[in-house]
């Protein structure tokens, strides 16, 4: 088991079949203000070929598996309802806690992140009526850091805010500053949630959430590359994270310079 709160992984049992990586309490700075928080975890199979190595070494290597090897991932959102959203590699499904029974009830089966635009066509003999159903025009980011952002990210945000992006609709901003909450809204409503600075952890946050996003038809990116394709080299490795609908992620990446590498005025 590897946790964001611990310096090194913990080897729990020699015959344990799985490896768990987790962020036990995301958004903990918001607790006193009763803002939603969450937990994030991912599950891998234990690499049995490493069993001959010393405990510390095999624990670390098991925890540094690529996101493509995840067998399951999950987040739990603690808000007006307690929601557990999970994937085992065959779709993304959310369960809501029934406090009267203590059971988690399937309330959101087969979640599909809303695309940015849906084209609908109806044919009336020789005429075709075409209209667009727009959804997902929401971006989630800390706008207060606008002047610290690289040029590409500023141009992207300016463009979608003015409705001058690939699809002509002005985007709205929604930002909670709780990763699980911002991602949950994005998963249900569409759009894009982002943290452009090297702040979020690849192992505990980016990989599990990107697996959930992809299983819901979305994408997870560091601004250039697919998150799940990245090979972790450190347990607490940090990176930029962009999660959302494929259209939004692809348009964002087309601006090139969107990763914030300089963090003036605040600590990472």
Automatic annotation (TrEMBL):
<keyword id="KW-0378">Hydrolase</keyword>
<dbReference type="InterPro" id="IPR033391">
    <property type="entry name" value="FBPase_N"/>
</dbReference>
<dbReference type="Pfam" id="PF18913">
    <property type="entry name" value="FBPase_C"/>
</dbReference>
<dbReference type="InterPro" id="IPR044015">
    <property type="entry name" value="FBPase_C_dom"/>
</dbReference>
<dbReference type="InterPro" id="IPR028343">
    <property type="entry name" value="FBPtase"/>
</dbReference>
<comment type="similarity">
    <text>Belongs to the FBPase class 1 family.</text>
</comment>
<dbReference type="InterPro" id="IPR000146">
    <property type="entry name" value="FBPase_class-1"/>
</dbReference>
<feature type="domain" description="Fructose-1-6-bisphosphatase class I N-terminal">
    <location>
        <begin position="2"/>
        <end position="109"/>
    </location>
</feature>
<keyword id="KW-0119">Carbohydrate metabolism</keyword>
<feature type="domain" description="Fructose-1-6-bisphosphatase class 1 C-terminal">
    <location>
        <begin position="135"/>
        <end position="255"/>
    </location>
</feature>
<dbReference type="Pfam" id="PF00316">
    <property type="entry name" value="FBPase"/>
</dbReference>
<protein>
    <recommendedName>
        <fullName>fructose-bisphosphatase</fullName>
        <ecNumber>3.1.3.11</ecNumber>
    </recommendedName>
</protein>
């Amino acid at each position: 088991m590897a946790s964001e709160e611990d310096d090194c992984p913990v080897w729990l049992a020699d015959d344990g079949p799985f490896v768990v990586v987790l962020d036990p309490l995301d958004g903990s700075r918001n607790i006193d203000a009763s803002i939603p928080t969450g937990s994030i975890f991912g599950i891998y199979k234990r690499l049995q070929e490493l069993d001959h190595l010393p405990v510390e070494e095999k624990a670390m290597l098991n925890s540094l598996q690529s996101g493509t090897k995840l067998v399951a991932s999950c987040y739990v959102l603690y808000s007006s309802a307690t929601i557990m959203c999970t994937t085992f590699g065959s779709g993304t499904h959310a369960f809501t806690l029934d406090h009267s029974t203590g059971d988690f009830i399937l309330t959101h089966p087969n979640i599909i992140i809303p695309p940015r635009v849906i084209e609908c066509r109806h044919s009336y003999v020789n005429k075709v009526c075409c209209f667009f159903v727009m959804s997902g025009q929401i971006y989630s980011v800390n706008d207060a850091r606008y002047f610290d952002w690289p040029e590409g990210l500023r141009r992207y945000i300016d463009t979608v805010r003015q409705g001058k992006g690939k699809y002509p609709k002005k985007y709205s901003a929604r930002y909670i500053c709780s990763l699980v909450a911002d991602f949950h809204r994005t998963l249900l409503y569409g759009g894009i949630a982002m943290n452009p600075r090297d702040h979020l952890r690849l192992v505990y946050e980016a990989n599990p959430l990107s697996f959930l996003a992809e299983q819901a038809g979305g994408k997870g990116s560091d601004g250039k590359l697919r998150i799940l394709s990245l090979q972790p080299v450190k347990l607490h490795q940090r990176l930029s994270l962009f999660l959302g609908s494929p259209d939004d992620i692809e348009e964002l990446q087309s601006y090139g310079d969107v990763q914030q590498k300089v963090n003036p005025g605040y600590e990472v």
